[in-house]
Design brief:
heterodimer; A: alpha/beta; four-stranded parallel sheet; 9 helices; elongated; B: alpha+beta; 4 strands; 46% helix; DUF7855_N (chain B); DUF7855_C (chain B); coiled coil (chain A); DUF7856 (chain A)
């Protein structure tokens, strides 16, 4: 189940090796946090930091890497990680894999948003331009009629020239408006086609998220009985220390120790010396947790 | 009203947050879509969503549907007659055969 051995080098060059690295008597200024960072970082590390040679931590490890009385624990998440690490099969696996495959194979047509935006702008501008010219043509028609009533031939000619000029501009603007509207409609249709694929992608993403939730719950449920057994044994061993009582009540530390006991862990966990003493010493702790230890 | 439809998880999340913070502007919410009031502020929210999520947001301007103004009489009357038919299992095409009601494929091909 476990790989077993750890090699740890402190910045002063001191080296430790074995399934149990006991740093209780070591004076060096090396914090549990620094050791955890080294476990996560692997090697090489900076010369002023400790280095740990061990298998890389898995998802379970993050929940129980620091076993101290103050440990925070999300019990369900930790148990789900244990189930996953044990390779528990769930009814969601097949559907999850299928949904992931479908998502991978789904191609979503790209839409050039800048182009679409430019088309919207052009259609809007063309629309307001024709609107403006329509009003201008109407005004000039009125002016021509009024000049005719006045009987001023020069003024009539002038107004007619202005009217025919505006009419020509209006016809150009209308042509532009039609072109802009058609262009926009074409791009909108293309965007709509891409939305079908986007909608499909969204449904697949939701399905994957749901299946993952279901799988996590199934993983946690699968290891719950073993976890409860282990928690009972740990509870007896702790015998009421760290606020645990003899009964079945869980505390974060008791739960975390039980999680560590039932999980396949190959990267070392850093255990508080008081916890090690409560469990009956380094050997007994190692037996219970079945994981490489660094005691600090 | 302004109909906003989202097509990605992040766009949906943004819409959800916008709806939560601006309830006065939201007429209806339907999961990944919402109807916003046609105020400048509704437009402001729609523009923001479009700016942030581009192709993952669709914005349509909607208006109330008046079947007496927007629909040809024959179509409206066919719908009323079909809704009141005697046998609930008759498909429309069979119902419309040998009557003056427009047939479905004809209606499908005609823009409103």
């Amino acid at each position: 189940m476990t790989g077993g051995t750890v090699r740890l080098r402190l910045p002063d060059g001191a080296e430790f090796e074995g399934p149990i690295v006991d740093l209780r008597g070591v004076d060096a200024d090396v914090s549990p946090a620094a050791i955890l960072a080294a476990i996560r970082a692997g090697c090489p590390t900076r010369p002023d930091r400790p280095t740990v040679y061990a298998p890389p931590p898995t998802r379970v490890h993050t929940h129980v890497c620091r076993l101290s009385p103050e440990i925070p624990l999300d019990r369900r998440a930790a148990l789900a990680a244990v189930g996953a690490a044990r390779g528990v099969e769930t009814t969601s696996d097949a559907d999850l894999a299928a949904a992931k495959r479908s998502l991978r194979d789904l191609s979503v047509p790209t839409v050039d948003d800048a182009e679409l935006r430019a088309a919207r702008r052009r259609a809007a501008e063309a629309g307001s331009e024709t609107e403006r010219l329509r009003e201008r043509v109407a005004t000039l028609r009125g002016r021509v009629a009024a000049r005719r009533v006045d009987g001023d031939d020069d003024a009539v000619a002038e107004a007619e020239t202005a009217l025919s000029e505006a009419t020509r501009e209006l016809s150009e603007a209308s042509t532009e408006e039609v072109a802009a509207t058609q262009r926009l409609a074409t791009l909108e249709r293309r965007a709509d086609r891409s939305r079908d694929a986007r909608e499909k992608r969204l449904r697949l993403e939701d399905r994957i998220a749901n299946r993952r939730r279901a799988r996590r719950a199934a993983h946690a449920d699968a290891v719950e009985p073993d976890f409860r057994d282990a928690r009972g044994r740990i509870g007896s061993a702790l015998g009421g220390r760290f606020g645990t009582c003899g009964d079945d009540a869980g505390t974060p530390l008791r739960d975390a120790l039980a999680v560590a006991a039932v999980a396949p862990i190959r990267a070392p966990v850093v255990v508080d010396p008081d916890v090690v003493s409560a469990l009956g010493g380094p050997e007994a702790t190692f037996e219970r947790l079945d994981a490489p230890l660094v005691i600090r | 009203m302004l109909l906003v439809v989202t097509y990605s998880r992040r766009a949906r999340e943004t819409l959800r947050n916008a709806c939560r913070s601006h309830e006065g502007t939201v007429v209806r919410r339907f999961g990944r879509a919402a109807l916003l009031r046609e105020t400048e502020y509704g437009a402001f929210l729609a523009c923001r969503l479009r700016e942030r999520h581009a192709g993952d947001v669709q914005v349509q301007r909607t208006e109330p549907f008046n079947e007496f103004a927007d629909v040809p009489d024959a179509v409206r009357e066919a719908a009323v007659a079909y809704a009141r038919r005697d046998s609930p299992h008759t498909p429309y095409d069979r119902f419309a055969a040998d009557t003056d009601h427009p047939d479905a494929s004809e209606m499908r091909g005609s823009e409103l």
